[in-house]
UniProtKB/TrEMBL annotation:
It is a single-pass type I membrane protein. PANTHER family: VOLTAGE-DEPENDENT CALCIUM CHANNEL SUBUNIT ALPHA-2/DELTA-RELATED, VOLTAGE-DEPENDENT CALCIUM CHANNEL SUBUNIT ALPHA-2_DELTA-4. GO terms for molecular function: metal ion binding; voltage-gated calcium channel activity. This is Voltage-dependent calcium channel subunit alpha-2/delta-4. It comes from the Eukaryota. Belongs to the calcium channel subunit alpha-2/delta family. One of its GO terms (cellular component) is voltage-gated calcium channel complex. Residues 188-370 form the VWFA domain. InterPro entries: Ca_channel_alpha-2/delta, VWA_N, VWF_A, vWFA_dom_sf. Keywords: Calcium, Calcium channel, Calcium transport, Disulfide bond, Glycoprotein, Ion channel, Ion transport, Membrane, Metal-binding, Signal, Transmembrane, Transmembrane helix, Transport, Voltage-gated channel. The keyword tRNA processing does not apply. It holds the Pfam family VWA_3. CDD domains: vWA_VGCC_like.
Length: 678
């Protein structure tokens, strides 16, 4: 059959750089639509705040996602719990959602009728029409939300939120990576902790908890170190002496273990620790290393005997490039004025922490101070997070764990009278499932063994076929602890000199070839291949895209030329199917198309029954060609099967064939109950 059609065939060489640039442009425009959706929400939230007068006695019933649809013993809906219609929606993983309205989640430790909450919720009602409008404009959007600095979380589409087994809701939007990253710029931080004898007991416990809480507010774009002082100054990790390290997950966990082992003894001398910290920060600043944005010292102590003016005068005044935040531990107030003076004269913030319960709220304050310059200048920076699983958002509902990235933007108060205070109202965000992005780099264009991958400017993988984020614990699948900080060099390990990694982190466009070993069949065999890597950045984001083509497999593409009539005749044969996870036609946007299988959609597209179906014409053309070329197989198989059944007892049970365009033909020669390999 190939011989018959050979004169009309074309073989085209694949241009990898063209391909990667084209994919990158499509991804960029898809991500730009997400950014536009978030920008519209920010604008709506800021305008709503501008027109809202704070009212301390406001009465307002809102949909509380914990209480919706709950009734009391008299069969009346509970307060804040009204009827809220929920329907399963395929686009949201078949969760029960309400796509006309958002609802409000509050962590257990926030009072749900606090005046600040009621005013914020009332003001943010203005986001509802925008959520709905965004979703209509761009049906590929998933969750959209607003996290408020007062602690409430407005989520669209609305869902019913279920507490954990202890009846507690611990999810607090203000601790999430996307919130913290959007609310502050990158920062270099030195944490100084007093480990002198007076810190023994509860004070030490509170201090440790404070450090751990500060560490949890840091991310990939921040740099950190921790100094403990008593009679002398010591870096709690001696290997990090005199430097700052990236606050990625591994370093943060390492620091947490070391903090846990600290013990209180001796006499405290702060000035050496302060001097050391200022020196490190200055070196980093002058060498152009670190976050290049904000610098701060966090001083955690139970009191300062003097105000150490000389140190600040020498290292921090008059420019005050480093902010100093002070945390006074314990109930003692004798030395409070000194500790407060240190913070107030170094553009910082002073807070007293006397119980473990105070830690979270008090630590969060420093983020507001750091974000003040951004607020005053109205710098709306768009941030993209590294890949994470959305399981935390819906711990309450078992989810197929999807890798997501979040695009987020801060919301500032525009009121003239508080403009100089720099008030952050909250953060707006939206999730982008990474598989939506990868749909734009379809497998069939990459040939056998070809694949596309994405990584961030920190060198971490967003998505890669060798990224295995889950492990099995009993029957359950769980994310590995470091799944979102797997470095590119851990999966593309042939890149020993990190040429590929460095170029991609710097957002370059280019080409590289490497000899690689590829495991197949779940790691039972290995292939030796030469791969060509093509890469470029996705502009407007911190991501880079790589496309890998294998020599001899992915270099060429075969283009068949078949008429629609001829092809359709062969596509309509009974034992033929298409790979359903491939996208021949876009069926998941329009609700009328969702029930169609890919094969049904292709046939309707070709017969013109559904003029508004969007299909990948190149791929459909390949399918038609494959259908025609493989049409005679069935007759051949049948002849073969008859022949064999004469000679032997066990004849052919089934014959099948797959093509590179995802077409599958199969023929069954025994009753389905007789197949030996089910």
């Amino acid at each position: 059959k190939y011989k018959d059609v050979e004169p009309t065939l074309k073989i085209k060489e694949v241009d990898g750089l063209e391909l990667v640039k084209k994919f990158s442009e499509q991804m960029e425009s898809m991500l730009r639509r997400k950014v536009e959706a978030v920008e519209r929400l920010v604008e709506a939230a800021e305008d709503a705040d501008l027109n809202h007068e704070y009212n301390s006695s406001l009465e307002f019933d809102y949909y509380n996602s914990l209480l919706i649809n709950d009734k009391d013993e008299n069969d009346n809906y509970v307060e804040l719990g009204d009827e809220f219609i929920l329907e399963p929606n395929e686009h949201f993983n078949n969760l029960l959602v309400n796509t006309t309205y958002s609802d409000i989640q509050l962590p257990t430790n926030v009072y749900n009728k606090d005046p600040d909450i009621l005013n914020g919720v009332y003001m943010s009602e203005a986001l509802n029409p925008i959520f709905v409008d965004n979703f209509e404009r761009d049906p590929t959007l998933t969750w959209q939300y607003f996290g408020s600095s007062t602690g409430f979380f407005r989520l669209y589409p609305g869902i019913k939120w279920l507490p954990d087994e202890n009846g507690v809701i611990s999810f607090d939007c203000r601790n999430r990576g996307w919130y913290i990253q959007a609310a502050t710029s990158p920062k270099d931080i030195v944490i100084i902790v007093d480990v002198s004898g007076s810190m023994k007991g509860l004070r030490m416990t509170i201090a440790k908890h404070t450090i751990i809480t500060i560490l949890d507010t840091l991310g990939e774009n921040d740099f950190v170190n921790i100094i403990a002082y008593n009679d002398y100054v010591h870096f709690i990790e001696p290997c990090f002496k005199g430097i700052l390290v990236q606050a990625d997950r591994d370093n943060r966990e390492h620091f947490k273990q070391l903090v846990d082992e600290l013990q209180a003894k001796g006499v405290g001398t702060v000035n050496k620790a302060l001097t050391e910290s200022f020196k490190i920060l200055r070196e980093f600043r002058e060498a152009g290393q670190g976050g290049l944005c904000n610098q701060a010292i966090m001083l955690i102590t139970d009191g300062a005997v003097e105000d150490y003016e000389a140190v600040f005068e020498k290292y921090n005044w008059p420019d005050r490039k480093v902010r100093v935040f002070t945390y006074l531990i314990g109930r003692e107030v004798t030395f409070a004025p000194n500790v407060k003076w240190i913070a107030c004269n170094n553009k910082g913030y002073y807070t007293q922490i006397s119980t473990l319960a105070d830690v979270q709220e008090n630590v969060m304050e420093y983020l507001h101070v750091l974000s003040r310059p951004m607020v005053i200048n109205h710098d709306h920076d768009i941030i993209w997070t590294e890949a994470y699983m959305d399981s935390a958002l819906f711990a309450s509902q078992a989810q197929s764990l999807l890798l997501m990235t979040t695009v987020a933007m801060p919301v500032f108060s525009k009121k003239n009278e508080t403009r100089s205070h720099g008030i952050l109202l909250g953060v707006v965000g939206s999730d982008v499932p990474l598989r939506e992005l990868l749909k734009l780099a379809p497998r069939y264009k990459l040939g056998v063994h070809g694949y596309a991958f994405l990584n961030t400017n920190n060198g971490y993988i967003l998505s890669h076929p060798d990224l295995r984020p889950l492990y099995k614990e009993g029957k359950k699948l769980k994310p590995k602890p470091n799944y979102n900080s797997v470095d590119l060099s851990e999966v593309e390990w042939e890149d020993q000199d990190e040429i590929l990694r460095t170029a991609m982190i710097n957002g370059e466009t280019g080409y590289l070839s490497m000899d690689v070993k590829v495991p197949v069949d779940k790691g039972k065999r290995v292939l030796f291949l030469t791969n060509d890597y093509f890469f470029t950045d996705i502009s407007g984001t911190p991501f880079s895209l790589g496309v890998v083509l294998s020599r001899g497999h992915g270099e060429y593409i075969l283009l068949g030329n078949t008429s629609v009539e001829e092809g359709l005749h062969d596509l309509l044969q009974p034992d033929l199917s298409l790979a359903n996870e491939w996208i021949y036609c876009i069926t998941d946007i329009d609700p009328d198309h969702r029930k169609l299988s890919q094969l049904e959609a292709v046939i309707r597209f070709l017969t013109g029954e559904e003029p508004d179906l969007e299909c990948d014409e190149e791929l459909v053309q390949e399918v038609l060609f494959d259908a025609v070329v493989t049409a005679p197989m069935e007759a051949y198989w049948t002849a073969l099967a008859l022949n064999m059944s004469k000679e032997t007892e066990a004849g052919v049970e089934m014959a099948f064939l797959g093509t590179r365009a995802g077409l599958m033909r199969s023929a069954l020669y025994v009753g389905s109950e007789k197949i030996s390999n089910k």
